[in-house]
Design goal:
By secondary structure, the protein is mainly β. The chain has 2 domains: about 10-155, 6 Propeller (Neuraminidase), CATH 2.120.10.80; about 155-260. Helix content is about 0%, strand content about 45%. A 5-stranded antiparallel β-sheet has the order 1-2-3-4-23, with no helix packed on it. The chain has a 4-stranded antiparallel β-sheet with strand order 5-6-7-8, with no helix packed on it. Strands 9-10-11-12 form a 4-stranded antiparallel β-sheet, with no helix packed on it. It is globular, with a radius of gyration of 19 Å. Residues about 15-20 and about 250-260 have low confidence and may be disordered.
Length: about 280
């Protein structure tokens, strides 16, 4: 990603449907999973084609419990899946359900994680979704889309006050960022052998306490939000230099005050309606 440009949102925020919050729960092949609450409504959206589809209600539609989501492509079935994990506010797992695009339906599965996952979207890597454990930030919870099975594996050992913050993919490996409040910096760790704790390796340190890394490029450049009130920036982990800001502070007379949600989404013509359900195309 070399630059960011402003486009009109394909989601009709003026509609009463979107009067409340909307969150982005990951992107895959140009599709973005959006969740509104309340009411709890899920949409698949392609910003490039401006096509979107409202998904059928999940078993958690009317629940007041906490729900975490993950979204990704399942190569074994050539299908897109959404995983929803519900728990009580005491962080007791209630159930896990999976949406399959081919059937346009949800089903509850038997397997469940040992603890509730974090609020962040599940990170997709090699057909597996990953979250930090909510109550134990020293553990990653993984869900294999093709087996529909959960797996836990530990993070590297950190000393307080180090804080694991985000999961991504860097240099073809699963990656985590670790915030260091004492030095106002962020460390980057990669798991060189998937699933093996001893293979975690620290590969770089950025001299800034990053709010949200968005993208890791092939030349070891990270693109991130500095914080909630500053522009999208880039930082090269090889030469330890910042790039120029990628989003201006204002678009004409509209001051850009805050970045609340952001996802990297590749341009594609993949339809959220591949299996001929009723789509919605937003007119300009």
């Amino acid at each position: 990603m070399k630059k960011a440009i402003h486009i009109d949102s394909p989601i009709p925020f003026s509609s009463s449907l979107f009067d409340n919050s909307i969150s982005l729960y990951g992107s895959c092949d140009g599709l973005i999973l959006c969740v509104t609450y309340p009411p709890r409504i899920l949409l698949l959206l392609n910003p490039s084609t401006r096509e979107q589809i409202t998904l059928p209600h999940s078993p958690f539609h009317d629940t007041t419990y906490h729900v975490s989501y993950g979204f990704g492509y399942n190569a074994s079935t050539d299908d897109y899946n959404i995983v929803a994990i519900s728990c009580t506010y005491a962080y007791i797992i209630v159930s896990v359900c999976v949406y399959t695009q081919k059937t346009n339906s949800w089903r509850i599965i038997r397997d469940s994680p040992l603890s509730m996952v974090s609020d962040a979207p599940g990170t997709l890597f090699n057909g597996v979704l990953h979250w930090f454990a909510y109550e134990n930030m020293s553990t990653v919870i993984a869900f294999h889309l093709w087996e529909e099975k959960f797996q836990n594996f530990p993070l590297p050992c950190f000393e307080a006050p180090s804080i694991p913050r985000f999961i991504g993919v860097l240099r073809g490996c699963l990656c985590i960022t670790v915030g260091e409040p004492d030095t106002n910096s962020t460390e980057f760790w990669v798991m060189k052998e998937y699933g093996k704790r001893e293979s975690w390796t620290k590969v770089a340190t950025c001299p800034h306490y990053l709010t949200k890394p968005l993208n890791f490029t092939n030349n070891d450049e990270i693109q991130f939000l500095m914080d909630e009130t500053t522009p999208l920036r880039s930082y090269n982990l090889k030469n330890n230099k910042y790039g120029s800001r990628m989003i201006p502070y204002a678009y004409g007379s509209l001051e850009l005050l805050q970045y609340l949600e952001a996802e990297i989404c590749l341009e594609s013509i993949v339809s959220p309606n591949r299996h001929c359900f009723t789509p919605i195309v937003i007119d300009d």
